[in-house]
Design a protein that fits this description.
Layout lengths: L1 H28 L1 H11 L4 H9 L1 H14 L1 H8 L11 H10 L12 H23 L7 H23 L4 H14 L3 H6 L9 H13 L10 H5 L8 H9 L4 H11 L2 H7 L10 H10 L2 H6 L1 H20 L5 H12 L3 H7 L2
Helix pairs in contact: 1-4, 1-8, 2-3, 4-6, 6-8, 7-8, 9-11, 11-13, 13-14, 14-15, 16-18, 19-20
């Protein structure tokens, strides 16, 4: 009777721990990915797609229940007991990883390498557990060993799920930004991942498009891109420049000129009379050009940015004997949000 009671406890512990992991994995860590995945799966049924988007909690609970139910065929086929009982969740762990493999294009975005490595890991885990199960064991310290064995196997299963599923931080961030952009929440989009140093072309473009949508007060519509663009990490300036040019918007074109470092084209295109206050990065470009028109029309702004530019050049002068990479790294913290630094090291 005691043995059956112990086995029942093991089953409940494994079910609770795996269920908690599955729910957290689906509801918290894979939220944006699952919502995007559902949008692809149910693109033909807009009503169902919207319902699933708005009921992510129910979707997560349903998928968690399916993952737990897969332990039943796992128990029938694999037949592990006691300290190895958690290995019966092998199919469940694979299920969680497979359904969260969306890479932004394919529902099953795992590479061949990921599939092969995951298959090998699962096979090795199965074989090792079978070997351990065949070895006679003493009853000494049985319960702690049983608990420790199951916890170890569950940890390995969680690692397999994480490896098989998509944990690309930039993809998850981009999917969240796309949701915010579609809802018109441009300010929230720009704050999301604001301090992250990594980006990708998709994130770059979403931020630029959001900046073009922000109110510009007395300046031309979209000119906030000239005020804020280089406050964010730009992973691929050439790709972003090309995408901005394709919008055929004046402010987007001016920003693309800055990204390309084509200051002559920038100066020839911009209409200074259209601005009440020249956006920060537009002014910094004019300072680099030493543009006399901008100096006369916006004297205070020009003088302020010129002072910053002179300070930046003075710092570079003190590092002229060092490599370009060393200069870039040494001036990054204090200057990386300026166009002066971007024009010097990133264009």
């Amino acid at each position: 009777m005691e043995k059956k009671s112990c086995d029942k406890c093991v089953r409940w512990i494994c079910a609770i721990l795996f269920g908690a992991f599955a729910f957290c994995w689906l509801y918290f860590f894979q939220r944006e990915l699952l919502q995007a995945e559902n949008g692809v799966l149910f693109s033909a049924d807009n009503g169902l797609r919207i319902w699933m988007f708005n009921h992510h909690l129910l979707v997560s609970l349903a998928l968690t229940a399916i993952a737990l139910l897969l332990a039943i065929p796992g128990r029938i086929v694999l037949r592990f007991k006691k300290g190895l009982y958690a290995c019966n969740y092998l199919f469940s762990a694979a299920f969680l990883g497979v359904i969260t493999g969306y890479d932004g294009n394919s529902l099953f975005g795992q590479s061949y390498t990921v599939w092969i490595v995951t298959g090998v890991l699962m096979l090795v885990l199965f074989l090792v557990c079978k070997i351990v199960a065949s070895v006679p064991k003493s009853e000494y310290n049985d319960r702690p060993r049983t608990l420790a064995g199951n916890l170890l196997i569950l940890s390995l299963l969680f690692a397999i799920t994480s490896y098989l599923g998509n944990t690309d931080e930039n993809l998850h961030r981009r999917l969240r930004m796309e949701q915010l952009y579609n809802r018109g929440e441009y300010a929230r989009l720009l704050e999301y991942g604001r301090s992250e140093e990594e980006s990708d072309p998709g994130i770059d473009l979403l931020r630029a498009k959001a900046l073009l949508q922000l109110p510009s007060n007395d300046n031309p519509a979209g000119s906030q891109i000239g005020e804020n663009l280089f406050k964010y990490t730009v992973s691929d300036p050439k790709a972003l420049s090309k995408a901005l040019k394709s919008t055929r918007l004046e402010q987007a074109y001016l920003a693309s000129c800055l990204l390309d470092g084509n200051l002559k084209e920038f100066a020839d295109t911009i209409n200074l009379n259209a601005y009440n206050t020249l956006p920060k990065y537009y002014m910094q470009a004019m300072v680099i050009l030493n543009d006399s028109t901008a100096r006369v029309k916006f004297p205070n702004q020009f003088a302020e940015e010129l002072s910053s530019y002179n300070s930046f050049r003075k710092t570079l002068e003190s590092l002229k004997s060092e490599s370009r990479q060393f200069q870039s790294n040494s001036t990054f913290i204090s200057n990386h949000e300026s166009y002066f630094w971007f024009y010097t090291f990133r264009r």
